[in-house]
Amino acid sequence: MPKEAVFSRNDHSHWVWSVRFNTFHDQLILSSSSDCKVLLTCAGSVSSEAAASDALNEERKRVLSDGLLQTFDQHEDSVYCVEWSNVDPWIFASLSYDGRVLISKVPKQYKYQIIF
Predict the structure, then answer these.
(1) pLDDT, tens digit, for every residue of 77-89?
(2) Closest C-alpha to 8, from 45, 63, 61
(3) Does the CA dihedral 112-62-52-11 come out positive or negative?
(4) Which of 53, 62, 89, 101 is most open to solvent, judged by the fewest CB atoms within 10 Å of its CB?
(5) For the chain, what is the domain count?
(6) Which InterPro entries does the entry link to (predicted)?
(7) Is residue 7 part of a domain?
(8) pLDDT tier for residue 58 given thresholds of 50, 70 and 90
(9) Contact by Cβ (8 Å): 115, 89
(10) Alpha-carbon distance 7 to 81, whole Å?
(11) 4 located within any domain
(12) Which domain holds residue 46?
């Protein structure tokens, strides 16, 4: 039970409505906000991969540093929900107040940095 936040960001300019971590690659975090944006953030320093101490992880240095990776700003209204796909760990959906649903992917550059 931490007494303070283990990871904190203030990249959104308005209220945050939803935050989801990727269950397969838990360093990837999505957040949605009233600023009409979905943000893809890396939290590698607090991920399960950072906590593991086997030889493979010591050999493989974490390439992605903590912070904002990508801003998705295709919505025209507040984005109330983001969810990762249960089938593909690189796909997610976002839902805005006006009923628009967008299906997006983690950009290839970040995907390849994580898996290689």
Answers:
(1) 999 999 999 999 9
(2) 45
(3) negative
(4) 53
(5) 1
(6) EIPR1, WD40/YVTN_repeat-like_dom_sf, WD40_repeat_dom_sf, WD40_rpt
(7) no
(8) low
(9) no
(10) 20
(11) no
(12) 16-51+63-115
What average pLDDT does this structure show over 19-46?
A: 93
C-alpha span between 100 and 82 (Å, rounded): 12
Write out the DSSP string of the chain: --SS-SS-----SS-EEEEEE-SSSTTEEEEEETTS-EEEEE-GGGSHHHH--SHHHHHS---SPSEEEEEE---SS-EEEEEE-SS-TTEEEEEETTS-EEEEE--HHHHHHHH-
Token code pair at residue 99: 């009923």
Which pLDDT value is given to residue 89? 96
CA distance 37 to 94: 10
Q: How confident is the model at residue 102 (pLDDT cuts 50, 70, 90)?
A: very high
